[in-house]
Design brief:
It is built from 17 helices and 18 strands. The chain is an alpha/beta fold. Helix 5 links the parallel strand 4 and strand 5. Helix 9 crosses helix 15 and helix 11 runs parallel beside helix 12. It is globular.
């Protein structure tokens, strides 16, 4: 057993004894994924500031440095740190940022590298809050100089964490843009006035224990352990958008059942200008998935939808009236068509008639497969669709995708088309040029909502037409972030996105 590595309970006991003996405690905090000379020098100089050096390491689930991070898991990182003679104790930090572990340790000095001294350059915006936290306990923050290396740069360029397609794409982005340019693109989203329209979907996850085959009948028996509910569909898109822009309006329709209404109102971002039509003519769309909790595998899906499109008549009239009166004030309209009947031809026509910059996400599903068509979105500014659904529209399973995209572009005159391809990434075409973007997901937990997150972030970038490869990168990162979590349980925000990109480009 390594005597240097302690849990939080034991480190608290140790600190009480150390402070009783008038020992001055120094805390260094970080991921410390790949140890290098910069880390060694940092620890050496930190130890000179006091008597006892404690190093806290971020647990794996809170490492948000992007694709392939951490390269080494917590126990491996702690074991490596324990070999450094300047370090007295190592403790895991099971918190989102350093404030949590500062509160636990309450050190005399919290030590950071000199590169963090200028708070304005801190993308996370957390250093100033960490300084405030350390002062609560009579401590102070100290910045020590040393040779600066980047663990992310080493992981990105010296390991196999990226495949060749990702390396090639990142290299192209780095050759054309610096981080500041990409940051400016993202900051420009804030000034957009965005309208999101579409069907709200309730995604229900029933975590079950698979008990086996029924003793009397030929079906599987599940024992329900827990149920989790999330808002999906256009509501999820509106939430994503509202994290990046100041003004987001969301128009949708849902049933009048109390549980759905409470869930929608509770989980929509308070910043959103909501225009939810609770229509007693329709049923709330609920998509329930039964999950084998041991393997996180979907066993069965049961959907509650509206079989008759005519039930949306009241909602459609109210949406049309709002658009007729207000459409001109929006810079971008994001249209989410999940094929359940809310968006009729009249609504789509008024959007295209007013020549608003309109982004469309159209999906095929088990309920609309027999009458699915993209013709109603002819001449839209931007359309996103999955490859399988795209091939269904083109009635062609075997031809090269690029060829089909050109044929589609000529037929439907869609200005910008994106075809998503799951683990193979996405393809963009604007009538002249193709851009091929790889998939950035490191692990697949749940594919539900990944297309929505990609669509949300890419849509905000399409207005800046000269930098569409940046928009594609941002959309792909959003999709990867979503796919590594259940449903829409964790929303990507600006700070996380910028930090991810910063580490990606090192």
């Amino acid at each position: 057993m390594n005597k240097k590595i302690l849990n939080t309970k034991n480190i608290v006991k140790k600190i009480k004894l150390l402070k009783k003996n008038k020992k001055k405690i120094i805390l260094c905090h970080g991921v410390f994924d790949l140890l290098h000379l910069g880390h060694i020098q940092h620890f050496q100089k930190a130890k000179k500031l006091g008597d006892i050096l404690i190093v806290s390491t971020t647990t794996d689930k809170f490492v948000n440095k992007g694709f392939g991070k951490p390269y080494f898991n917590l126990s491996e990182r702690q074991e490596a740190l324990s070999s450094i003679k300047f370090i007295d104790f190592i403790v895991p930090s099971d918190f989102e940022d350093a404030r949590g572990i500062i509160k636990v340790i309450q050190p005399d000095i919290y030590c950071k590298g000199i590169e963090f001294k200028n708070f304005s350059k801190d993308i996370s915006g957390k250093i100033k809050f960490e300084e405030k936290e350390i002062k609560k306990y009579g401590g102070k923050i100290a910045f020590v100089s040393g040779k600066v290396f980047s663990s992310s740069s080493i992981v990105n360029n010296k390991t196999d964490v990226f495949n060749e397609d990702i390396k090639k794409f990142i290299k192209t982005i780095k050759r054309k843009y610096d981080f500041k340019t990409i940051q400016d693109v993202i900051n420009n989203y804030e000034n957009l006035n965005v309208l999101v329209i579409g069907e709200t979907i309730i995604d229900t996850y029933s975590n079950c224990e698979v008990m086996g085959k029924s003793g009397k009948e030929p079906h599987l028996v599940l024992k329900e352990r827990s149920v989790e509910n999330y808002i999906g569909g256009a509501a999820s898109v509106a939430n994503y958008v509202s994290k990046f822009v100041k003004n987001t309006t969301f128009i949708s329709s849902s049933g009048t059942d109390r549980s759905s209404k409470i869930l929608i109102e509770k989980n929509l971002n308070k910043k959103i200008n909501k225009k939810i039509i609770y229509d007693d003519n329709i049923r709330s769309i609920i998509k329930k998935r039964y999950i084998d909790q041991d393997n996180t595998i979907k066993v069965l899906g049961v959907y509650r939808i509206n079989d008759n499109n005519n039930v949306y008549k009241k909602s459609q009239e109210l949406i049309f009236k709002y658009l007729d009166k207000n459409i001109k004030k929006y810079d971008l309209v994001i249209l989410c068509d999940y094929g359940h009947g809310l968006l009729n031809e009249k609504i789509i026509k008024i959007l295209f008639k007013n020549k608003k910059y309109t982004a469309v996400n159209s999906q095929i599903n088990s309920s609309n497969i027999n009458y699915f068509t993209l013709e109603k979105f002819k001449k839209s500014n931007y359309l996103i669709i999955n490859e399988r659904e795209f091939r269904f529209e083109m009635k062609d399973q075997t031809s090269k995708l690029d060829h089909l995209i050109k044929l589609f572009h000529k037929k439907y005159q869609v200005k910008n088309l994106v075809v998503t391809r799951g683990k193979y990434g996405s393809v963009f075409f604007n009538g002249k040029n193709f851009i091929y973007c790889p998939a950035f997901a490191n692990k697949i937990i749940d594919k539900v909502g990944a297309g929505d997150s990609f669509f949300s972030l890419f849509s905000l970038g399409i207005i800046q037409e000269e930098k569409l490869d940046i928009a594609l990168l941002i959309g792909s990162i959003a999709g990867a972030h979503n796919i590594e979590n259940i449903a829409n349980s964790k929303k990507l925000d600006k700070k996380y996105l910028l930090k991810y990109i910063d580490h990606l480009l090192k």
